[in-house]
Each structure stands twice: as structure tokens, then as C-alpha cells.
Amino acid sequence: MLANEPTWIILPQGLMPFIVEDRPHPAGMGGHQLVLRFPNNYGASVVPFRYSYGADEGLYELAVIVFRADDDFVLTYGTPITNDVIGYLTARNVAGICNRIRKLDAAPPGTAERIAQERAELRREMMAKVESR
Predict the structure, then answer these.
(1) Would 110 be classed as within a structural domain?
(2) Which of 43, 65, 87, 92 could in theory staple to 61 by disulfide, Cβ–Cβ 3.0 to 4.6 A?
């Protein structure tokens, strides 16, 4: 077993070098999060936790992510892979999708920052509507 190999999901050895985080799920609701980062600046967040799609069946949920300049990341729904998270995945499905993510053209510089800014603006607009009621 490699030092960075998670014990809760079995992925092909070819994906092990791309694991950058294996941690408890950051939402604090139990479960895990595995983060993979590929040279094209895209990656995958793989989770099983109480509210993820398929967790109650021992399956995984995957989100396509894009990394920011500061090594943080945001979920992206603008790739040919998917326009949402993908749930009910076996470890084999996760590996297949990760290999597709690896083959995407490189994310243009500033992609993650643009997505984060758009989401922040959307949140502000939504909050302004709620407060105006």
C-alpha cells in the first residue's frame, strides 16, 4: 500500500500519484473526502458521507473540480464530464471518470477564480432578494 493510498476506496495505482488530500468530509457530517489533482488543473472530489448520492448503498459521489492559484478548488459544472455531481458510483466508475477528467484540455488560467466570483455574486443577489421581502 502506498503512503498516500486511501483505505476506504480502492483506486488503480495509476491514480495514486494524483491524490492530494484524503480527509474527513469538510462539512462535518461524517464520511471522507478524497481529492485528486491532475496536470490539467482539473480534479475530482470523491465522497461517501451521510447525504451523498449512493452512500447508503456503499457507493460514491464525485464532483469535477478546478483548482485555484492558491491550491484551493471549486466545483465546476461546465465540463463535458457532467453539469452536476455524479452519484451512485462504484470505485471502478470513479476511476473511469477520473481518467476522463485527466484527459480534459487544461483549464484556462483564472477559471476557478471566475467560478468562485460568479457564485459569490449570485449569493449576494439571492441574499438581496431575501432581505428585500
Answers:
(1) yes
(2) 87
Residue 1 has pLDDT above 60, yes or no: no
Q: What is the residue range of 74's domain?
A: 13-131
Return the C-alpha cell found at 78: 461546465
Residue 104 resides in a domain: yes
Per-residue pLDDT at 94: 97
Report phi then psi at 49, rounded to 5. Answer: -150, 170
Predicted confidence at residue 103, as pLDDT, reads 97
Domain membership flag for residue 4: no
Residue 13 CB neighbours (<10 A):
8
Number of structural domains (the chain) is 1
**Beta strands per DSSP E along the chain:** 19-24, 32-37, 42-47, 60-67, 73-75, 86-89
Decide: helix, strand or coil at residue 85.
coil
Q: What is the pLDDT of residues 44-80, one digit of tens each?
A: 999 998 889 998 898 999 999 999 988 899 999 999 9
